[in-house]
Design brief:
Strand order of the largest sheet: 1-2-3-4-5-6-7-8
CATH topology: TIM Barrel
CATH architecture: Alpha-Beta Barrel
Order of helices and strands: EHEHEHEHHEHHEHHEHEH
Number of helices: 11
CATH superfamily: Aldolase class I
Largest sheet: 8 strands, parallel, barrel
Number of strands: 8
Structural class: alpha/beta
Shape: globular
Strand content: 5-15%
Radius of gyration: 17 Å
C-alpha cells in the first residue's frame, strides 16, 4: 500500500516570523500522525529556519520551485545544489509557474532531471485548463505533460505527481473525487506505458485544487489518490491538521 502524502504549498505567503509561528503551532500534532508523510513547502526565505524547527521530527520540507542549473549567472534563481542540504522535496511545473512565468514542458523536464540528480524528490504538477476541460481535451493535455516531463528520465519511485486542474486552483471549485480518481488513473497508466507497471504502482499521485478539511475525505477515499497538494488551507493550522488527520484515518482503514 502506498503511504499517503500531504504537502502544503504556502506559495508567496508568510513573513519569516509568520512561517515559524505557523509551523510551531501545528508541529506537535503533525509529528504524532505517523501513517501520513507530511511535507511543508514555505517560501525560500523560510526554508533554513523551518529546517531547524522540524529536525528530529517526522515532518519533511519542500521547496516551491528551483532552476535546473547547479550554479551560474542566473540572477534571482535557486539551484538544486543550494536546496540539496535544506529540503527533501521540490514542487516542479506548478500551473502558476507555467502560466505566469512561461515555463514550458521542456524546462519542467530539465528541472525534473536536475532534481533527481541532486537527490531531491520532485512533486511534478500537471493539469488542464478550463477550456481544455470543457473541450474534452483533459486526457490529451495531461498525457502530453506527463510524457514531456518524464522524457529521458529513468524510472524511479522517488517521483511524486500532483494532478491539479487549473480551473480548480484557488477558485474554491474542486473536481469531484470520482473525476480526480479517473484522471489520476490515466496518469498512472501513462507512467506505466513510459516506464513500467511496477514503478507506476509504486509512485504516489496526489490531487490538488481547492482542497480543504471539508472535502479532503471525498478525494482520499478514492483508490488511486494517494494524498493532496494543499494550497490555501495549508496556511491554516487547524485546516491542514484536519486534512492530515482525515487522510490518516481513511487510508489506514482496510
Amino acid at each position: 500500500m502506498r503511504r499517503p502524502l500531504i504537502a502544503g504549498n504556502w506559495k508567496m505567503n508568510t513573513r519569516l516570523d509568520e512561517a515559524v509561528e505557523l509551523v510551531k503551532s501545528m508541529l506537535p500534532d503533525l509529528d504524532n500522525i505517523g501513517t501520513v508523510e507530511k511535507v511543508l513547502c514555505p517560501p525560500f526565505i523560510s526554508l533554513a529556519a523551518i529546517k531547524e524547527i522540524i529536525k528530529s521530527t517526522s515532518v519533511k520540507l519542500g521547496s516551491q520551485n528551483m532552476y535546473f542549473k547547479d550554479k551560474g549567472a542566473y540572477t534571482g534563481e535557486i539551484s538544486p545544489l543550494m536546496l540539496a542540504d535544506l529540503c527533501e522535496f521540490v514542487i516542479l511545473g506548478h500551473s502558476e509557474r507555467r502560466q505566469l512565468f512561461g515555463e514550458a514542458d521542456e524546462m519542467v523536464n530539465s528541472k525534473v532531471k536536475a532534481a533527481l540528480e541532486f537527490e531531491l524528490r520532485p512533486i511534478l504538477c500537471v493539469g488542464e485548463s478550463l477550456a481544455d476541460n470543457e473541450a474534452n481535451r483533459a486526457a490529451i493535455v495531461i498525457t502530453a505533460q506527463v510524457t514531456a516531463a518524464l522524457s529521458g528520465v529513468n524510472p524511479t519511485d522517488q517521483l511524486v505527481i500532483a494532478y491539479e486542474p487549473i480551473w480548480a486552483i484557488g477558485t474554491g471549485k474542486a473536481a469531484t473525487g470520482k473525476q480526480a480518481n479517473a484522471t489520476i488513473s490515466l496518469i498512472r497508466g501513462t507512467v506505466a506505458r513510459l516506464w513500467d507497471a511496477s514503478t507506476a504502482q509504486a509512485i504516489r499521485i496526489l490531487y490538488g485544487g481547492s482542497v480543504t478539511g471539508s472535502n479532503i475525505a471525498e478525494f482520499i477515499a478514492e483508490p488511486e489518490i494517494d494524498g493532496a497538494l494543499v494550497g490555501g488551507a495549508s496556511l491554516k493550522a487547524d485546516d491542514f491538521l484536519s486534512i492530515v488527520r482525515q487522510t490518516a484515518s481513511i487510508k489506514s482503514t482496510p
